[in-house]
Amino acid sequence: MSNTLIAGAAALGLAYGGMTLLCLAMDRHHQQAWGREPSRRQRVGLRGGGALLLALALPPCVAAWSATVGIVLWLGFLSAGALPLVFLLPYAPRATAWSALLLVPAALAGLMWLP
Question: How far, in Å, are 17, 24, 32, 66, 112 from residue 28 at the CA level?
Fold first, then answer.
């Protein structure tokens, strides 16, 4: 597999996971998924984890493409990672949370294949 394909898949998976964590940090979506509002500690942890995953989606883009193209593609992957949440979160909130939990380790494993 080419480096650009692996980098794109890893960035998309990390963006999806990061956006999912940021959505679950909101009271409404956390209530939908788990039946209760998040505590302050959970909210801060979800926001921090989401921001970290979004930041981790940038290096594979810059490594596979140049810095200028990589940053633009990273922004595109952030948008593409948020798009499934628009459709999935209102209808299957718990399944969305579990899908992100399964997808993020696979995306992190994909980072090991990049030079």
Answer: 18, 8, 6, 39, 35
pLDDT tens digits, one per residue of 44-89: 999 999 999 999 999 999 999 999 999 999 999 999 999 999 999 9
> Is the overall model pTM greater than 0.85, yes or no?
yes
Residue found by looking up tokens 């193209």 in the block: 69
Distance of CA 67 to the CA centre of its chain: 20
Query: Which residues lie below 8 Å from residue 14, measured CB to CB, with a gap of 6+?
Result: 53, 54, 56, 57, 60, 81, 104, 107, 108
Distance CA 19, CA 92 (A): 16
Backbone angles phi, psi at 73, to 5 degrees: -65, -35
Tell me the longest C-alpha to C-alpha distance in the chain: 44
The residue type of 29 is: H
Report how far residue 95's alpha carbon sits from residue 97's, in angstroms, rounded to the nearest whole number.
5
